[in-house]
Design brief:
Blueprint lengths: L1 H15 L1 E4 L5 E4 L4 H18 L6 H15 L11 E5 L6 E4 L3 E5 L9 H16 L2 H13 L1 H10 L7 H17 L4 H17 L6 H13 L5 H4 L4 H24 L8
Parallel strand pairs: 3-5
Antiparallel strand pairs: 1-2, 4-5
Helix pairs in contact: 1-6, 2-7, 3-4, 4-8, 4-9, 5-6, 5-7, 6-7, 8-11, 9-11
Length: 267
């Protein structure tokens, strides 16, 4: 019976998944959970992060982050522009994240390496690039297959049907939040988020060349041990080289955006 159930669950998982093409033309498997469930998991992970805090009450810094997020999200497709929520965490680790459902979290420590609005835009646009590229969906779909369809799909179903399955659903939600949202993505995903993010920031009127300066600052701040946000990403020097090459191509996009009136003045 267990084997039959597992087979049915795996068949359901395969049927639910789909092969799609990412913004850079890469084939990816998505659809392990619905967009609605992704948004709910994003909201859950964001709520948990805020509950752990601490949240910064610095009004100027909060307004600064919201301004940059607003400028970048205006360049998203119409249905994805509105409703983005931000949180500024009083945490000295230079880090940031974005989640499905329109959530952005930034640590105050990022200001030690993102020293102007263009560099902060490079960080935030990269994180939003993960959302745009459906990386959370891709990671969850991959993880569901790796951990076993029966356990996770059963927990997701249990969250809807019956009190007895409630604890399993909560546990599954925690697993999915960790594997799909909080753990670092693959290097392939990180490179893709760089590409998409740099394009986004240029279209929003932020200087794409400042992405290079940001990563130089990150390396300098790391000393012998790079910051956690940096250590989970591709080789820093290779990354800087790629960012520099793309920035030269994106300068005309940036200049056109400025000429069209997209001139962020966030601080």
């Amino acid at each position: 019976m267990k084997a039959v159930c597992l087979g049915v669950a795996i068949a359901c998982l395969v049927a639910a998944c789909a092969t799609t093409v990412s913004p850079t033309g890469r084939r990816q498997m998505v659809g392990g959970v619905s967009q609605q469930e992704l948004n709910q998991l994003g909201a859950q992970a964001f709520s948990e992060a805020k509950s752990k805090g601490p949240i910064s009450n610095n009004a100027k810094q909060n307004a600064y982050v919201r301004c940059v997020v607003a400028a970048i999200t205006r360049e998203l497709p119409p249905g994805a522009q509105a409703g983005w929520e931000t949180a500024l965490f009083a945490n000295q680790e230079p880090n940031a994240f974005a989640l499905p459902g329109g959530k952005v979290g930034v640590n105050t420590g990022i200001f030690t390496v993102a020293r102007n609005q263009d560099q902060l835009a490079a960080v935030i646009a990269h994180e939003i690039g993960h959302v745009v590229s459906r990386h959370h969906d891709e990671r969850i779909t991959r993880q569901m297959g790796a951990q076993g369809a029966l356990q996770i799909l059963g927990a997701l179903a249990g969250s809807r049907y019956g009190e007895g399955a409630g604890n399993a659903a909560v546990q599954s939600g925690s697993i999915l939040a960790q594997t799909g949202f909080l753990l670092p993505g693959s290097r392939q995903q990180e490179t893709e988020a760089d590409v998409v993010g740099q394009q986004l920031m240029a279209r929003a009127g932020f200087d794409p060349r400042q992405a290079v300066n940001l990563w130089e600052n990150m390396i300098a701040a790391g000393g012998s041990r790079p910051p956690q946000w940096l250590s989970t990403h591709p080789d820093p020097q290779a990354r800087i080289s790629e960012l520099r090459q793309r920035s030269a191509q994106l300068v005309p996009v940036y200049e056109q955006a400025r000429a069209a009136g997209r001139k962020p003045n966030c601080g």
